[in-house]
Sequence to fold (432 residues):
Amino acid sequence: MGKDTLTVTDNRTGKSYDIPIENNAVRAPAFGQIKVDAEDPGLTIYDPAFQNTASCKSRITFIDGDRGILLYRGYPIEQLAEQSTFLETAYLLLKGELPNAEHFASWKHNVTMHTIVHESIKDFMDGFRYDAHPMGMLVATVGALSTFYPDAKRISDPESRRIQTHRLIAKMPTIAAFCHRHAIGMPYAYPDNDLSYTGNFLGMMFKMTELKYEPNPVLERALEILFILHADHEQNCSTNAMRSIGSSQVDPFSALAGACAALYGPLHGGANEAVLRMLQEIGSVSHIPAFLERVKKGEGRLMGFGHRIYKNFDPRGKIIKQLAHEVFEVTGRNPLTDVAVELERIALQDEYFMKRKLYPNVDFYTGTIYQAMGFPVDMFPVLFAIPRTAGWLAQWLEMVQDEEQRIARPRQVYLGSPARDYVAMERRPKDA
Ligand code: ACO
Fold:
């Protein structure tokens, strides 16, 4: 067995350095000692978009992208999707272990007791234009929550952290549903604490004049599974935002608003909305070849395909494809599914996508399910943000308790102008 070190030789100086390898990683600051002379600030690691840089040690989620494995706290996603509930999975992510019956009952009670939002939040939401995008409303409203809970600033107090966690997990579905009701001009529907987490959310979304909303059990369970699949995904763009913003020691509501904003982008959680719009634009199976030709020429992307980590298949995508059949049994088949299935089939046999290891990701089929369930397309990223709140909070809790973490502050490779003197306006060239 060799030594757990990496020997680096700087060919500029001929000097060699032994850098320790720990957990199959080397510490980037160790490269700072590699200098040409005493004036040299030392080597930095250049890694735009963090393609091979670990920013933390984590015990929450494991992904093996080549083998299509996703584990939450060691439990395979397939088993959780089949046997767990979203609230139990959220507990697992946040606390590290599956709860016993007593702990689960008290967790469920605590989350349920926080589902109502302050009436002023309703007033705040009324201020948005009638056609405001629900994800924009969500980002702003979650940020606004920080002003309602100034105690959330006490991030070193475990009790404060615990309460904010309950508040956020509980209030996200309420705010999300209010965003939708605002857009369609319907009165906000208050939470019904007799219903399950997803049943209550469906009620707040779709309740009309009935005294008691009764969710369809198949759709309620389908949403539960979709929430489990979206609950965490280690250091993705929005989670990195949550950790990075949280590293300034701001309250978790503000950090989570930033994470929601990161999720909104079409390359991340906005992809489910973008997929549906793409499928609508393609319109019919006969238009697929022309569409793919445009993608291959670089005129747009095949949304819902490709992943930074999964280079074989996305295990969540497999579960979702199966789930789609169960949902369509109740709702009727979404006609866009035919376009999606054919698009996937053709793309998977196409040299362009094969060479780049581009496979369907979690978002490729979620949109067709959500649409069949009656969710408007612009609610799709919001549906992602609700369950991901559990993951963001678990990652935030891990970060604030990690003694190695400090304020996130990357380095840069500066390629701009060297120091120069200010030039008065009248002395600047006319064509500058
Ligand atoms: N369609 C067409 N080409 C693609 C796609 C795609 N969906 N994804 C990647 N490529 C191509 C790129 O053009 C690039 O080709 P090149 O080497 O010829 O320049 C190559 O594949 C590598 O792509 P990158 O953008 O470097 O890969 P990266 O790991 O940075 O991006 C990402 C991953 C953002 C997911 C990308 O695959 C993408 O844009 N997919 C579409 C959007 C999407 O579905 N996002 C959801 C991701 S899952 C989630 O966040 C929940």
About this structure: The mean pLDDT is 96. Strands lie at 5-10, 15-22, 25-26, 61-64, 69-72, 75-76.
